[in-house]
Automatic annotation (TrEMBL), chain A:
It comes from the Bacteria. One of its GO terms (cellular component) is membrane protein complex. The lineage of its organism: Bacteria, Pseudomonadati, Campylobacterota, Epsilonproteobacteria, Campylobacterales. This is ABC transporter ATP-binding protein. Keywords: ATP-binding, Nucleotide-binding, Transport. It comes from uncultured Sulfurovum sp.
TrEMBL record, chain B:
It is found in: Cell membrane. It comes from the Bacteria. It is a multi-pass membrane protein. The chain crosses the membrane at residues 17-37, 259-279, 307-333, 353-377, 384-405, 411-434, 463-483, 715-737, 758-789, 801-819. The keyword Cell membrane applies. InterPro entries: ABC3_permease_C, Membrane_comp_ABC_pdt. This is ABC3 transporter permease C-terminal domain-containing protein. Residues 262-377, 716-825 form the ABC3 transporter permease C-terminal domain. One of its GO terms (cellular component) is plasma membrane.
């Protein structure tokens, strides 16, 4: 399903070069839920950026559903990402001037999913926000925002969800409730999940947990 | 010390922000500061030169010779007199071999003027230097030589006598106080004037008594003496003190600067809106720093002081740049303004002006800075109502500033209040409409959908940008259209207008004059008798008392002036093409002097009726050469004065004044004849006749109107540049706010093109709708004003309107394009790991 082969990635600051990954190999099966843990600066965000195709590796290949990223041109890669990957962020990142319904509808519009409005309403109802459709992000609580973000990530049936600390900005109770919803929906849709977290409790919900240390997943 | 350190670090590390701020604020205050600076210079020069403008401490003038008894009476009411002269001036057609012109002939009195004087081209001066001209000599303005194609030493015929041009006048301090100031002057000796035989019955002449008092009295004290004297002497005489000369010039100056003040106020307002957005954006960018500094122990008071000082320094740098530019460029700009207001004022560096400006700028820093800084320190979102309340001191400061910068009383204040009401109105209606237009879900076209949602849901920014562009385009499509309408009113149907006015003709001359004019291929038309009189009573109440008691201060002053003045009366029964009765009825026919049962009927021009405060059916008593005539107002009529056909404020029915001593006013038609030859022939055959070249007169007026319109047009363009700079700042602010939304949209997979188009549609729609509405409102406004002021000579200016229609939206789109490209190419991976 997702395969990272011999990835090499370094950042350059002036004459200095900071090696993030030297030879990273990683494989995730369809429907698998994988947690990635690691200290700050270990390269978790870089890994998510590489998987999402926003940045390119210096060397190595990334395959999603047998499609090699390097074979795609930038615009094709963007379309591929929009169709196949859903995102959930620590800071929710809802579009501030769109209400809950419109935020959820947006990926469906981009991917030309049929009946986007009905599907968005259905999803929002399933995350318990059927009564908050017309509310702007500024009118929602943290937990509600993250539930909208989950609905948004799932509406176009992506192959894989990349979740970056989804409960990091929520209190424990709200975080657990949001995680319950996320895992339930992912299971229902048989979607692959790659979840970056600092919380062992959240990681324990996944089938596999990796730790990113010195550019390697162990 | 820490505060100062923080301020300088903020200045040094936000160079592009600081430069944009200084550029924006410098532009915002430049026009206003320039105007104020020149006004202060001119005001102050006028104050010190007021006595020179009049030439004496007090002047009493009359259109009739002043008798010895009157002189004695006046003398008894004045303080002790040091010196006294009797002046006289008249107007006459003066001809050389090739040209003829109407000019003012002034008798030179020994020792007069007591203040100021004449400076000749040969650098000699009068009265402190040069002696009086000899009986056969005259001193003339350079214009006399230019207009008559003469040179120094040439002979010049005045009335029945030939004179030699002895001196050419370079400067004349009495230039502006003259009652016929637009005419070039010729100074002549007393004996020379007698020889010319210009002063006969019916001639337009002004007799003056010039006084110099023993005690050196200030201008205000002299004005008090003037007012007292006015009350107690014959009302046909006018009294002038030095302040009158100053006020007269101030009126000309105000005519020029009033319009400019309003336009520069608009620039200032726009610049301030830009400043608020700019500084608000800066604070938002540094919000985290503020929180951290506060957490580290820097008190809220010190943090407030830090950012207030930062703002004040930026404002001060902008002001120093503008003031330095004013000082540097004043020497180049001053001569242009001197020419425009026709007054050689002294260029003055008034430190009070700089002190006052600094205080205003400090107040601006406080009233803008505090409402922006304090909510950030409170760390809580302020609601809209609280935000508006916190800006009230700033709004009050703006209203006060508007009041003080505009020369005409209350004009600036009312203008600012009107702008404020319009802004509140636009915001109120706009917010309501935007709420109505909001919809849930997405349209088929995602760019359009995102654009509409941004417009509807970012109300504050959308409405600020919309209102600013709307006010700009409204005002700037209004100004040039009014300017052209006025020019149009002056230039339309030129061929139908008379070419010459004939003034002071005697009844017995009319037949010969008509034949002569006809022989030269023109027609003597609009022959109207003119009798001088005065209104003494309105509805049995003394007119002077009435004018003192009724109406507001302005109306009282105006009526008081009118009640002192004599008026020109005429009579005829038919209406002219340029007249229309708007109230009442036409005259019932010729007045029958034997039938006392019917009152005399009078027709009053609409605006004059308003000025003297009379209505249809009111009874007026006129004093015509001592004879009291009672008349009833049977109609109020409008007159198209712009057609330049001679007319009168007060018209009596025929049969009332037919036998009264009169002069005749007439016109000579335009046509295919030699105008110079006409003037030469008439001044030769009828030396006492006054012939005014209407074409020249209205061309010089048109020149002034065009000058003011041109300056205002340029100022409008300047304001548009500030308006666009403000749009640039607002768009930049809005795009920075949208930065994360753009990255979020990109992350979801929305294409760059769709995102860019959504912003282009958003700002394009705002800009296009605002400029279109502005153009429509400006055009309607200019049409209404033209209809009210210039009798519908409305000049639609599609060239200007099309320019705004395309220029403003296109420039807005370019600005948006620039900022979107800057943001849109950022990688969206910054959203990870925040």
């Amino acid at each position: 399903m997702l395969e990272l082969k011999s990835l090499k990635k370094a950042y350059h600051q002036g004459s200095q070069s900071i090696e993030i990954f030297e030879n990273l190999n990683f494989h995730v099966k369809r429907g698998e839920r994988v947690a990635i843990m690691g200290k700050s600066g270990s390269g978790k965000s870089t890994l998510l950026s590489l998987i999402s195709g926003i940045i390119k590796p210096d060397e190595g290949d990334i395959f999603l559903n047998a499609t090699a990223y390097k074979d795609l041109k930038e615009s094709a890669l963007n379309d591929f990402r929009a169709t196949n990957i859903g995102f959930i962020f620590q800071n929710f990142h809802l579009v501030s001037y769109l209400n809950a319904l419109e935020n959820v509808m947006l990926p469906a519009k981009v991917c030309k999913v049929s009946n986007p409005k009905e599907k968005a309403i259905e999803l929002l109802k399933s995350v318990g926000l059927g009564h908050r459709l017309d509310h702007l992000p500024s009118e929602l609580s943290g937990g509600e925002k993250q539930r909208v973000a989950i609905a948004r990530a799932l509406i176009h049936n992506p192959k894989i969800i990349l979740a970056d600390e989804p409960s990091g900005n929520l209190d424990e109770e709200t975080g657990n409730a949001v995680m319950d919803i996320l895992f339930e929906l992912i299971k229902k849709n048989n979607t692959t999940l790659i979840l970056v977290t600092h919380s062992q409790e959240v990681a324990n919900r996944c089938e596999k947990t990796y730790e990113l240390v010195s550019g390697s997943l162990t | 010390m820490l505060i100062v350190e923080l301020v300088f670090k903020a200045l040094a590390r936000s160079k592009s922000f600081s430069l944009l701020f200084i550029f924006n604020f410098s532009l915002a205050i430049a026009a206003l500061a320039y105007l104020q600076f020149f006004k202060v210079s001119i005001d102050s020069s006028l104050e010190t030169q007021a006595k020179s403008l009049l030439g004496s401490d007090l002047v009493v003038s009359s259109r009739f010779p002043i008798s010895t008894e009157q002189e004695e009476d006046i003398k008894s009411k004045l303080p002790e007199i040091k010196s006294f002269t009797q002046g006289v001036s008249t107007v006459s057609m003066i001809a050389s071999k090739t040209r003829a012109r109407l000019m003012q002939i002034v008798k030179v009195n020994e020792g007069f003027p007591y203040y100021g004087g004449l400076v000749f081209k040969d650098k000699s001066i009068y009265p402190k230097g040069e002696g009086l001209p000899k009986a056969n000599e005259v001193w003339v303005y350079q214009e006399v030589l230019d207009l008559l194609n003469l040179k120094l030493g040439d002979p010049l015929k005045i009335g029945k006598e030939n004179f030699v041009i002895k001196k050419v006048i370079k400067d004349d301090t009495l230039k502006t106080i003259s009652f016929s100031g637009f005419m070039p002057k010729i100074y002549i000796s007393e004996e020379g004037l007698k020889k010319s035989e210009l002063l006969q019955f019916g001639s337009t002449a002004s007799y003056k008594l010039n006084y110099l008092f023993k005690e050196n009295l200030d201008n205000d004290r002299l004005e008090e003496i003037e007012n007292k004297l006015k009350e107690s002497i014959d009302q046909s005489m006018r009294v002038l003190s030095p302040n009158d000369g100053r006020d007269r010039l101030l009126r000309v100056l105000n005519f020029v600067t009033n319009f400019l003040s309003l336009v520069s106020l608009v620039s200032f307002f726009l610049g301030l809106v830009g400043l608020i957005y700019l500084y608000s954006g800066f604070l938002r960018k540094h919000q985290k720093d503020i929180t951290v500094l506060n957490d580290l122990g820097l008190s809220k008071r010190n943090l407030t002081l830090t950012y207030l000082l930062h703002l004040f320094i930026l404002i001060s740098i902008s002001s120093i740049i503008v003031f330095s530019l004013i000082v540097f460029t004043a020497q180049f700009i001053a001569p242009m303004i001197q020419k425009l207001v026709d007054f050689d004022f002294h260029f003055l560096l008034d430190y009070n002006f700089f002190m006052q400006s600094s205080l205003v700028l400090l107040a601006l820093s406080l009233t803008i800075g505090l409402p922006l800084i304090l909510p950030l320190l409170q760390r809580e979102k302020q609601n809209f109502f609280k935000t508006v309340l916190s800006f009230i001191p700033f709004i009050i400061l703006l209203l006060l500033l508007s009041h003080f910068v505009s020369p005409a009383k209350n004009v600036g204040f009312f203008f600012a209040v009107a702008m404020l009401i319009l802004i509140i109105l636009f915001f109120g209606i706009g917010a309501f409409l935007l709420k109505k237009f909001d919809f849930s879900g997405h349209l088929e076209n995602l760019s359009l959908s995102l654009a509409l949602k941004n417009i509807v849901r970012q109300k504050k920014t959308s409405l600020t940008l919309f209102t600013a562009i709307l006010l700009c385009t409204t005002l700037f499509s209004l100004i040039p259209q009014i300017g052209s309408s006025l020019s149009n009113a002056l230039t339309l149907s030129v061929d139908d207008r008379p070419r010459f006015f004939v003034i002071d003709a005697k009844e017995e001359q009319i037949k010969d004059l008509s034949v002569q004019v006809s022989n030269m291929g023109a027609k003597l038309e609009n022959i109207a008798p003119m009798i001088r009189g005065r209104i003494v009573k309105v509805n049995d109440v003394d007119f002077k008392k009435l004018s003192k008691n009724n109406g507001d201060d302005k109306a009282k002053t105006e009526r008081n002036e009118l009640s002192n003045r004599s008026v020109n009366l005429s009579y005829r029964n038919e209406l002219k093409k340029s007249e229309e009765i708007i109230e009442g009825r036409a005259f019932s026919g010729v007045y029958d002097s034997k039938d006392f049962s019917k009152p005399i009927e009078v027709s009053v021009e609409k605006r004059y009726a308003k000025r003297i405060g009379v209505n249809l059916g009111d009874r007026l008593v006129f004093d015509v050469l001592g004879l009291k005539l009672e008349a009833i107002i049977v109609n109020i009529r409008t007159v198209k004065w712009t057609e330049f056909a001679p007319n009168f404020f007060l018209l009596l029915q025929e049969g009332v004044l037919d036998d009264a001593p009169k002069t005749v006013l007439a016109t000579i038609s335009s046509g295919d004849y030699d105008a110079q030859q006409m003037l030469l022939t008439l001044s030769d055959l009828f030396p006492s006749l006054t012939v005014v070249d209407v074409k020249n007169l209205f061309e010089s007026f048109l020149g002034l109107v065009n000058d003011v319109t041109a300056i205002t047009d340029k100022m409008s363009l300047y304001s548009i540049i500030i308006g666009l700079l403000m749009s640039f700042i607002i768009i930049q602010y809005q795009m920075n706010l949208q930065k994360n939304n753009i990255l979020r949209l990109k992350m979801i997979g929305v294409k760059n093109k769709t995102i860019r188009n959504s912003f282009l549609i958003e700002f394009g729609l705002i800009s296009l709708s605002a400029s279109t509405l502005g153009i429509v409102l400006g055009s309607i406004g200019s049409y209404v004003i033209s209809a009210l002021l210039f009798n519908s000579y409305w000049d639609f200016r599609p060239d200007v309107l099309l320019l705004y229609f395309f220029f403003i939206p296109i420039l807005t789109l370019l600005i948006v394009s620039f900022f979107t490209s800057k943001i849109i190419h950022q990688k969206e991976n910054v959203l990870f790991g925040e």
